[in-house]
Predict the 3D structure of the following.
Amino acid sequence: MTNLQIFLDIATEAALAAGAVLQGYLGKLEDVVIEKGRPGDLVTAADKASEAVVLEVLNRHFPQHSILAEESGKLGNQDNEYLWAIDPLDGTTNYAHQYPFFAVSIGLLIHGVPQVGVIYDPFHNELFRAATDLGATRDRRPIKVSKTTELSKSLLVSGFAYDRRETSDNNYAEFCHLTHLTQGVRRSGSASLDLAHVACGRLDGYWERGLSPWDIAAGIILLQEAGGKVTAYDGTPVKIDTGRILATNGHIHHHLSRELMQVRPLG
Ligand code: IPD
Ligand code: CA
Ligand code: CA
């Protein structure tokens, strides 16, 4: 077994265990939802309990690796070339409202490049997995991106970061512009599932700004292994720390990039 396969299997173990924790808390949260500083940026007891489970599994198997976890921040030896980016509950707002669209997202970056990704949607019991050159799967069956070649026939998805009230670079203009040009733009509230759904062909493309590595590390490798393309908005190589990505089935990539680059902020 290759190292990547081992990393993938351990990340799967962690994601499934964390997903069970999320399912256990669903609908049972009382007044434990707290805003993290910006309006709408929530954290719940479920986020923390899920993260604790992921950390326990990863620390047990890979104590020497570094970790970037949404609720705990940087942990371990940050000089290590292996960095786990963990979102224990991607889609917290949905979760707090019992809107069933959320996931556990666990990505492994090696020398800064996403190489292993597991995204688990516990409500629908869907498990997305990928590792470099090992392919992408949903429930352990291979997945591929859609064949849609025209923007006018595409269904896209995007999102709005928690700083949307503080900046005019808030993606509102892009959302309106692309809504006119396509069959629709969805806003699901879970970046990792957005990427997973592009990877398995349910959606044709995704873009968003204001993201963190834990939102997208797993989804990037999943989409790439499913035959999709991930770049910056302008088509140049994606830099995960910019928090801005364009991710598509590949066929509509250039066209979508061109449209995004010409949008000016509203107002
Ligand atoms: C959020 C979701 C959402 C995206 C936000 C993220 P959280 O993550 O992925 O879809 O639009 O930018 O912060 O807070 O639910 O883990
Ligand atoms: Ca997130
Ligand atoms: Ca989260």
